[in-house]
Each structure stands twice: as C-alpha cells, then as structure tokens.
Amino acid sequence: MEDTHTRNWPAGHRAALILSFDVDGEYGVINRYGEDDWYWRSQAQYDLEAGVWRVLDILEDFDVQGTFCWVGRCAEDRPDAVRAAQEAGHESATHGWDHRYYRDMSLDQQIEDLKRTREVIGGITGEEPVGHKSPSWRFNEDTVKALQQLGFQWNMDYAAGDLPFTQQPESSADPILQLPPSRLWDDYSYFVDPIASPDNAYNMWRDDIDVLRAEGKLMCMTFHPWVIGRPAPSRALVHFLDYVAGLGDVWIARADHVAKWWRESANR
Ligand SMILES: [Zn+2]
After folding, report:
1. What is the CATH number of the domain that holds 101?
2. Distance from the CA of 9 to the center of ligand 1, in angstroms?
3. What is the reported pTM?
4. What pLDDT shows up at residue 1?
5. Ligand 1 centroid vs 107 CA: distance in angstroms?
6. Which of 37, 129, 202, 236 is the most exposed place for a label (fewest CB within 10 A)?
7. 193 confidence band (pLDDT: 50, 70, 90)
8. Number of domains, the chain
C-alpha cells in the first residue's frame, strides 16, 4: 500500500495542521447584522481588546506558529496587534477590507479590495501577504482569478478535500493552491450560535486529527480570537494543542509554509 504519510509531509511527520485566526474585529458582525447592532459589535470588539492577546500567549506557550487573516480595517485600526503577531513569527494574510462578501463583488471590485487590504497589512509588516481567506467563505467564480492576477499563492476557501489542491481558472497565470477548511474546524460552529462545552470541541478535533494522521492528510483550522480567545473556549485550543504535541509527529505550520512545501515537494 502506498505510504501517503511520507509522500505528503516533511520527514518524520504523519499529518499537517494549520492554525488560522481570522481577525474580523467588529466588521464581521457589522456586515452580518448592521451598524446599529451594538450587541454583536461589542461582543466582537473582544477580538482586538482581549482575544488576540490571549491567543498569542497560547501559541507562544506551545511554541507554534499560525496564520492570522486580517480584515484590512482591523489592521488599520490596530497595527500594534498585527506587529505583535508578526514579531511572534506568525504569518499575516488577507481577509477582506471590511468583511463584505466577495460573492457580491465583481472581479474588479474583488481585485481592488484585495489590493487595498494587502497594502495596509504589508505596510505594517514590511512583507506582502501571499494568502487570502474570503470573509465568511462567501467567494464566487472570480475570486481565484483575482488572486491569480495579483500573484497570491494560497487561498483557504474551498472546503472540498483533506489535502491541498491547485486551481488555475486563468491558464496564463500561476495556479492558486487551495488549503481546504471545514465548518467543523471553525470555532464559530461550537461557541457562537449553539454554545458547546470546550470538551465537545476538543473531542471532535481530537478525532479529526486521529483520522487525518492515520491517512497522512491536512487539518486546516479556522478560529476567531473573539470566540476562541474567550476564557473557556481557549481551553479547547489548549487541550487540542496539548494532544497534538503529544502525538509528536504532526507538522504544525503556517499556511504559507505548507503551501511552499506542497509546491516544492519533489514527489508531485
Ligand atoms: Zn471573518
């Protein structure tokens, strides 16, 4: 039987894990519920006041690096948070200028939105972002074309699989590598509408990584600091990282590093 573990990941690793954190600030809930919904706005303002900082502490404790997907306006509002993540070794990627859905934009509007967001983040970090996740994963058939035109490398929108795959709608431009997320690997699904216990989320994610490790695949998680950065939910992340660290052979890596490995790996 083919050994997918050694084919897919760097030596000594049986699976890969990406920890991505979408920093929406209040803009995600403004887009969803409107500007006058202060109930949701204040809930989500926890993001930059407390959540990001607790998440950074947890990642530092485990000495792991992840990917922060910034809403452009959040980066503009709080460059200190962007800098803190960068200084801790995390990747900075784009997550829309103000969390408007890309599915509602033309190709040109998506290009403008991506450029504006990338410029603000790059202006803070000094490094041009190479990855993008669409707000609420609401993309359309033009999104990958826009990313290709702007020279992005990876996208985390298409949930169709457990391994990276390439998309190249514009044959004259370089392909985009899809890193598939899942609504089951999203803290929103556990701690926002139905409120689950941290054990519930931890048990699900532990079973996920067990299956993926047996198959040599990729787990690509999405968190929101105003959700997972709350006290009890943060324990789900801690317990999960503790479990994964104990396995000893899961590659926990930034999205850009996984994308680079996947592209350069001589085995495909
Ligand atoms: Zn978001």
Report:
1. 3.20.20.370
2. 29
3. 0.96
4. 45
5. 20
6. 37
7. confident
8. 1
